[in-house]
Design goal:
With about 270 residues, this protein is mainly alpha-helical. It contains 10 helices and no strands.
Length: about 270
């Protein structure tokens, strides 16, 4: 899961001071302070578990002064810090990479023995597993939000990333086999479309997760304040959640249409 892409989705609306779809309708005539608040929405979310925590009573003003939080460290810095904390980190990464290459070689050997229709069925099977992985990923966030245990979320992301990586590798291997062994550029393009839609769906889902965490945190701030608390930021976050959910629904529809084309291709191969 590329958190940077998720952050990019959230920050894209900041170019015009809000969601692109909502900016024209809602942005005009807003006071300068509100416009600035909207510009800052979604631009910086630090996934460091020590920084992701629910707002506490009496901290509302402090939270507002501290937001937006500093951006997360660069991947290179994070990797260096991890290696410094764990002397065996590089060795572990090398071992994992070697295991991944071994798994890929075994997978390619198995795929080479399959017919075109079998390869396509393997792709649809991997896609079904990916749908279950999405449900597990979303369920992990729901648990985090319901329990307030935000420190568990990085583990949710790590587990989901591992699942999606394996499934994506499988479909990419199928694409390679279809091209190299069967010369099926048409089917390679079809699976490429599926991968592209899924990649965008995953990034958008990650963005939705981050937005829901911020919305939960802002709700705690508003709830801790008086009845006359300013709810504009919370309302804007709710709008952001709604927009991202709609985008995911559109992507699911595109994915289903692509899967339908793949099923037709299977029938044609088996005739």
């Amino acid at each position: 899961i590329d958190i940077k892409e998720a952050m990019s989705i959230l920050s894209s609306r900041a170019n015009d001071g809000g969601d692109v779809e909502l900016s024209d309708e809602h942005q005009r005539g807003l006071p300068a302070k509100v416009a600035q608040e909207r510009k800052e929405m979604g631009q910086t979310i630090d996934l460091d578990a020590s920084d992701l925590q629910w707002a506490q009573i009496g901290q509302a003003q402090q939270q507002r002064q501290q937001c937006p939080c500093p951006p997360p460290p660069a991947e290179e810095d994070a990797a260096s810090a991890s290696a410094a904390a764990d002397p065996d980190a590089q060795q572990k990464r090398r071992a994992l990479e070697q295991q991944r290459k071994k798994n890929e070689a075994e997978r390619r050997s198995e795929l080479d023995r399959m017919s075109v229709s079998e390869l396509l069925r393997a792709a649809t099977s991997a896609q079904s597993e990916r749908t279950l992985a999405h449900k597990t990923y979303d369920g992990g966030l729901d648990t985090v939000l319901s329990t307030g245990n935000i420190t568990a979320y990085p583990g949710v992301v790590a587990a989901a990333t591992a699942s999606f990586a394996v499934l994506s590798d499988t479909i990419n291997a199928i694409r390679t086999t279809l091209m190299e062994k069967h010369g099926r550029r048409d089917l390679d393009k079809l699976l490429g479309d599926l991968q592209r839609h899924e990649k965008e769906k995953l990034s958008t889902t990650a963005a939705l997760h981050l937005e829901r965490i911020r919305e939960k945190n802002e709700a705690a701030i508003v709830g801790a304040a008086s009845a006359s608390a300013d709810t504009r930021v919370h309302n804007m976050l709710q709008e952001g959640v709604t927009t991202l959910r709609s985008k995911i629904e559109e992507l699911v529809e595109a994915i289903n249409e692509t899967l339908e084309e793949i099923r037709y291709a299977i029938l044609e191969e088996e005739e």
